[in-house]
Amino acid sequence: MPATRLVIILLTVSSSLAKSYNQPNISLCALWSSDATTLANENVVGLQPAGIYIDTENTIYVADRQNGRIMVWDKESSIPARNISDNFINPWSLFVTTDATIYVDNGDFNNRVDQWIFNASNSAPVMNVGGSCTGLFIDGINNTLYCSLASEHLIVKVELNSSTMAPIIAVGTGCPGSVSDMLDHPHGIFVDTNSYLYVADTDNNRIQRFAPGQLSGTTLAGFGATVYFILNRPTDVVLDADGYLFIVESHNHRIIRTVENGFKCVVGCFGGSGTTSSQLHNPQTMAFDSNGNIFVTDMSNHRVQKFTLVVNTCATTSTTVTTSTSTTTVTTTTTSTSTTTVATTTTSTSTSTSTSTTTVTTTIIPLRAPAIEIPPNAKWQQNGVTVAGGNGSGSGFKQLIQPLGLYVDDAQTVYVADRNNHRIVGWKWNATSGEVVAGGNGEGNGTHQLFNPFDVIVDKERDSFIICDWRNRRVVRWLRRNGIHGETTISNIDFFGLTMDDIGSVYVADMKKHEVRRFQRGDSQGTVVAGGNGDGNHDDQLSSPQYVFVDRDYSVYVSDFGNHRVMKWVEDAKEGVVVAGGQGQGNNFTQLSNPQGVVVDKMGTVYVADAENYRIMRWVKEATEGNVIVGGNGRAELLNELNYPFGLSFDLYGNLYVVEWGNNRVQKFNIEQTIK
C-alpha cells in the first residue's frame, strides 16, 4: 500500500456485539448539499452544544450543555421526542449502545461519566474522571469505555464488566506535548473494529492513531503526517465503512475527509465562519445517519445542522430487471467519467410472474464544471485566495512562469500547465508549494519532455493526464502515478485547449484550422464538430479558437478568440450560435475582448475568462448580456484583480479557479451562499 494512501483498511472481526453507530459506505466522489437544514436551534439545544450521537435506527441524541440534559429525536422527526436529565452539569459528549443505554459526560462538576439505562428513572455513575470528557466512545469488542480528558491531555478507559469505576490511562502522559506519546487538549475519539484508537489531538493540530496496547501514536493527518496538510484545531474524527477519515476542523469552520491521495473539503467549504446555511462557526462533533447524511453541532451558532448526501457514486448506473413466466432479462448500463459498457444476460424460469424495475441514476459532471446547481444570481467572494504560484516568475516549486490551462480534481488538487517551465505542476489542497507531475526536464520533444504546454486535464478511468504539448504539436498522455514519460496520442496539430467527454473522446481547439475536432479512442484523424469553414465570423466559422468545453449532451462550447465571442455547437450541427459576446471587441456587458477559458454549469450558464478586460463574465442561458462575477478592477496583483486570466475551472462545490498568465498564479474565488 503506498505511503500516501490515506485510508485505513478495517479487518472483519467476528463479534456478537453489533455497532450502535453508523458507518455508511461513502464514495470518493460523494457530495453533500452545500446548504444545511437546521435540526435544532438555541431554543432547543441551548448555548454551545457539543456532543451528538446517531444510532443505527437514526435516533438522534444531542447533549444540551446549558440546560444539563440530553435531547432525543426519533427517526425522521424534526421535533424532539423527549429529554433526559438527572443532575447532568454541562454535559459535553455522549455515547449510546445498541440497547439504548446512554453514557453521558458529567465530569465538569461531578467528576464522573453516568449511565442511563433505557426507561430507567435515574442514571448511575460508571467511571470516575478528573474533568469533562470531551469525547466518549465504547469499544464494543472489549466492552471498554474511553474518555477524552482535554484538560488533562489524556485518554482514559475503564472495562465496563469490571467492578471498579477508576479508569486507567489509555494514551497520553498528563502533560501537553507533541511527541508521539503525548497529547494536547484532545477532543473527539473513535475506536475501530480492530480496537485501534483515533484521537482528534486538538491543540497539536493533528489526528493520531494508537494500536491496541501502544502508548505511541501514528500521525494520520495534520502536523507530522506523511502527507503534508495543515489542520486548524480538529475536534472530532469519524471513520466511514472503508476507513476514510472525516475530520471536524473547528477553527477552519468545516468538515474535511481523506481521499486516496490527500484531503477534500466536505461541508463548510465556502469561506470562513458565518451564520448562513452553508457556513459553520466552530463546529465540534459530527455523526452520520444510516443514509450518509452528516449532522454537526455548530457550537458558536448554537445549533445542529444537517447536510444531506446528494451524490454517492463516481458513475452513472441504470439497472432494469424484468421477470415473466418464461424469461428473465437483466440489462445494466454503467457510465463512468470516460467509458460506457452494456451487458445483457438471458436465462429461463418457469414460475415467476411479477415485474419490477429499479433505476439508480446520477448525473455525469463534465470536466471543469461544478457538481452543484448554481443559481443565476450566485455570488463569489471578490478577494481571491492564491492556491498555486504567486511568488513571482520563476522555476522553483512555489513559482510559475506564464501559466495557462488548469484542471481541479475531486480532491481539489490544482494541476497547472506551467508553460515556460515546460511542465505540469500539481498543488494539493492547502499546500504551499507544488510538485512536478509531468515534464520538468527542460524544453524538448523527448518522451520525458514537454515544450510550452498550454492545457491539461485528467482522465480518471486511465488515471492519466492528457496534455496539450503546444510547441511539439502533439497531445500527450502521461500516467499520474510515477509517470516518467508520456505517450503521444495525437500528432501534427496546432491547438490551444482541450477537454474530454464522458465516453473518453478528446476535443481539441485547432487555432490554425479554425475548428474544433473530436478524437475518439484510437482515432488519429478526428472529426470536425465546430468550425472547419475557414477563418471568419459567420455562424459556421471560428477565428483562432482557444478553449473548449463539452456538456452532458455533447454540445461544444468554444471561446472564439478572434471574434470575441463564445459559440455553442450542438451535436452534429452545421453551424453554431453565439452564447456570449459577439458584439465586437469591447468592455461593456454585451462584449468580450479576446476570450479564453470557458465553462458551462448545469443550468446552461456560461462562464468565460474575458482576458483583456481582466475579468470573469457570466452569461445566463439565452441572456443578451453578461455580468462580472470576479475581477474587472484592473490588472495589478491585488487579490480582487486579474492580470490576463486564461484557464478557468470550478471544483465540485462551485468554487471558481482562475489562472492568471500575467501574475503567474492561480486564484481561487470561494462561492458565497447561493441565493435561490
UniProtKB/TrEMBL annotation:
The keyword Signal applies. Keywords: Repeat, Signal. The keyword Chaperone does not apply. Residues 522-542 are annotated as: Disordered. It holds the Pfam family NHL. GO terms for molecular function: zinc ion binding. SUPFAM superfamilies: NHL repeat (SSF101898), YWTD domain (SSF63825). InterPro entries: 6-blade_b-propeller_TolB-like, NHL_repeat, TRIM-NHL_E3_ligases. PROSITE patterns: NHL. Residues 1-18 form the signal peptide. It comes from the Eukaryota. NHL repeats lie at residues 48-76, 174-213, 267-310, 394-425, 586-616. PANTHER family: E3 UBIQUITIN-PROTEIN LIGASE NHLRC1-RELATED, PROTEIN LIN-41. This is Uncharacterized protein. It comes from Rotaria socialis.
